[in-house]
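Researcher: Next sequence.
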Amino acid sequence: MKLAILSCGPRSYSTQRLKEAAKQRGHKVKVLNTLKFAIDLQRGVPDLHFKQKVLSDYDAVLPRIGASITYYGTAVVRQFQEMDVFCANTAHGISNSRDKLRSLQLLSRHQIGIPRTAFVRDKKDVLPAIERVGGAPVIIKLIEGTQGIGVLLAESVNTAESIIELLQSQKQNVLIQKFVAESKGKDIRAIVVGDRVVAAMRRVAQGQEFRSNVHRGGIAEAVELSDEYKETAVRAAQIMGLQVAGVDMLEGKTGPQIMEVNSSPGLEGIETCTGLDVAGAIIEYIAAQVDFPEIDVRQRLTVSKGYGIGEIYIPEGSKFVGKSIQETQIQEQDINVLTLYRGNKVIPNPRRDRVLESDDKLLCFGKMESMRSMVPAKARRRRSPAVADLPEQLPEGSEPDDA
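Model: Next structure:
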């Protein structure tokens, strides 16, 4: 395998370990500075140049994209994807995880624990938002930030108001998040590779510091996670669209609470405290994927006109409740059920005799018109709304776009 590691820090511990692990396994590997690429676009031939030269062929790419270059870095990764080079993390997954609000929005619709969070812009909404997340103390976070930077603890409502007002005056977007008291000063970092947790550690803050990040002086210790924590970490990474991820969790009273999913997790702390070859596990996973790659199913299957991926919800009172998948006759309508979501369970390729329950969700591939017909008539929107002529007189005060 010929592997490219995209990194602006070639001498960092993580980059060096990944390079070393690849060489030990007989792979060719190069560390390429993400900012030295030039993206070339022309009909049918997406291409890349590196340091003013046409890039040679690579089998796989391992992105290590820093927060400060997210936009350009994901553009480079996306170009590799369009060139059919396997990327350990896709541009879509990196973008999802890099924005804290976006990642929590994705996680919130699934049966995964997250701290209660609010996002507001209007000053009048701050106090109600603090109350909704459980009152002071609260955690205030910048939407983009790593290694504990931009994470503040406000012990009182007045302090929280002042911090938020100051940050917003500096054009910063902030999240207001419930403070999980039972987890004060400690969290879990799990490294997910593919569909399993390969290593985990508990990070404990020192002194008065409430942030447990190793970069903030936190002490790390190896930990063996329960199945609940492992499953939560893997599902969180998959929801983000990441194959290699560091998943940070708080140990709440009701179970794991996802705090953040990192697309470029550091390896020094976790390898040092666990003694495990995490870099090697990542390289071996990439090599296996090059031999038999996973693909972006939604992107590939939606190319067929009239066919695509859709999610069918089975509400209480639906005519499908109590029927097996076979009895619904959806396969006769050119619809195939790929996955059944039931509560916090994920059932891939469910049997045809599986009986449906209320609140089930079916992830399907098939004829879009057939799937739309399964939506109740009152809730169904018209597929092709008629386009009317503009009124003769535009509303008063209207302004043209892009003036």
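Model: The radius of gyration is 24 Å. The first strand starts at residue 2 and ends at 6.
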